[in-house]
Amino acid sequence: MPASARGSPPPAEALAVGAGAPPEPALTVHLARTGRTLQVQPDQTLLQAVRSVGVDVPYVCLEGKCGACEVGVLGGTPEHRDPVYANTSRLPRDRMKLCVSRSLTPRLTLDL
Ligand code: FES
To answer: CA 88 to CA 98: how far, in whole Å?
Structure first.
């Protein structure tokens, strides 16, 4: 098992939005089980933002392929950018991979 999957903090550069990509809009994420609300900055992934407040979401590939970082979505509409969901015709609204996906709505509520 890679060190990242055991919960050690990822290097910030490993989780950051790709260099040269257009800026992402800021996003508000509410974590329903922990009761926390946080802002995802334009240069952060959701995974990076959630882990930065101490919520230990696992990860392995950071490419949307393995599913380790997939979490439930309780509110808002995820924008799937992973290679699995992005190529399906029936996109799930209740699941998303935090390492690569974003949001079509300015606010998401996650089952975390
Ligand atoms: S870490 Fe593999 S899908 Fe997100």
So the answer is: 18
